[in-house]
Amino acid sequence: MQVMSELIPVTVVIADRTYRLRIDPKDEEVLRKTTKTISEKLIEFKTQFAGKDMQDYVSMVLIWFATEQNAAMTQQVEKDNIATQLETIERMLENQLKP
Fold first, then answer.
1. Could you tell me which of 24, 78, 96, 99 has the fewest CB atoms within 10 Å of its CB?
2. How far apart are CA 9 and CA 27, in angstroms?
3. Distance between start and end Cα atoms, the chain
4. What is the pLDDT of residue 5?
């Protein structure tokens, strides 16, 4: 469990709202990059879909982010499956080459 004294205070702004967080110092760079990506996507959706309210844009970013995460997980599963199949083929070839 994290001791409170080890956490650092960080303030981030998302969708014109300020959030004060306490995080592990090693997570700060990832948090800042994630916040920047979210802000950039909010701007992108605001320019593409004029006339919506901020809640709509935040929802769009959330859907986009979740989809990206699921796509990354799917790619990793596919890589793992391919690696397993290659290992199986390698064992089969080794067995065939044994005298």
1. 99
2. 12
3. 56
4. 63
CA distances from 83 to 44, 56, 89 (A): 37, 41, 10
Contacts of 52-59 with CB under 8 Å at 24 or more apart are 54/15, 54/16, 57/15, 58/14, 58/15
Who contacts 57 (Cβ-Cβ below 8 Å, separation ≥6)?
15, 42, 45, 46, 49
Residues 16, 54 contacting (CB under 8 angstroms):
yes
Residue 57 in contact with residue 46, Cβ under 8 Å?
Answer: yes
Provide the pLDDT for residue 45: 92
Whose tokens are 């950039």? That residue is 40
Confidence (pTM): 0.64
The two tokens of residue 28 are: 């700060």
Domains of the chain by residue range:
4-97
Distance from C-alpha of 89 to C-alpha of 41, rounded to nearest angstrom: 43
